[in-house]
Amino acid sequence: MVYSALVKTVFRALYGEPPDLSGGREGDGLVLVADGVGGLDLCGTALRYVMGAQKLPYVVKVVPWGHGLGRWHADLTNAVNRDAHARKVAEEVRAFRDKAPDAPVYLVGKSGGTGVVVKALEHLPDDAVDGVVLISPALSPSYDLTRALRAVRREAVVFWSPLDVIVLGAGTRIFGTIDRVKTVSAGLVGFRPPREPTEGQAAQYAKLRQVRWRPRMAPTGYLGGHVGPDSPAFLRKYVVPLLRGGPAPDGGFPPVGQSSRPGDAPIT
Fold first, then answer.
1. Residue range 244-267: average pLDDT?
2. Pick from 249, 234, 189, 268: which is nearest to 43 by CA?
3. Beta carbons of 116 and 65 less than 8 angstroms apart
4. Shortest CA distance to 24 belongs to which of 32, 36, 13?
């Protein structure tokens, strides 16, 4: 927590106050960001810097779903609070779609915030959002994503790292994941698709792309640990292109419907 607070201070020293991107013009798309536990909102802050600097036509909002600064344990363990804010996210997506049915909508979750994003997707109709990015997800690896993926029109991209051993290894083994299972998280080992999927599950998991941390990502500031993917340079290179609906960036991306989990077969 102290390290994360220091990183946020560095962000503000380097980039100033993050721009307010909650307005927008007619036709602009929507990006909703649910950050990790503890209330620091590092990922959302950095993404606002990057998207503001590129002047992209999106409204970018950070979802305030936690209990306040430093209250990471309450954020992690209060499932009622998680689900209530997930419903609010789903309501905001529906309201935006009613006003701008053709504008793109993306959800981004980091760490514990991925639980809010996935639960929100489960409340939405099919193809409600264009895409989803789950960064260092603090969900259990065997969490069934089928219902959430139905709400995704294009693809869901997961960034995970086998080096995230403190927070998503030991941390969630002791305190539990955001879906309340005491195990290592999907952000450490990737999601495990059903071994014998039904036809419906296979169709949904075909939208899932899992991206393992690689040393080539290190120049962006992502060294494989938990705070690294909050780096503006990482978000600029690997995440923002996904939100623009363009091709996946270079640097270890497997094809859609496949996983970079060692030894995994295609998710079909």
1. 55
2. 234
3. yes
4. 32
Helix, strand or coil, per DSSP, at residue 79: helix
Domain membership of residue 102 as a residue range: 2-243
Q: Say which CATH number the domain at 102 has.
A: 3.40.50.1820
Q: In the block, which residue shows the tokens 């560095």?
A: 10
Alpha helices in 104-208 (DSSP H): 113-122, 146-150, 172-175, 186-189, 199-205
pLDDT > 90: what percent of the chain?
A: 80
Written as six digits, the tokens of 195 are 């071994």
Q: Quick one: 95 exposed, middle or buried, by C-beta within 10 A (0-12, 13-18, 19+)?
A: exposed
Would you tell me how many other CB atoms lie within 10 Å of the CB of residue 196?
6
pLDDT tens for 91-134 read: 999 999 999 999 999 999 999 999 999 999 999 999 999 999 99
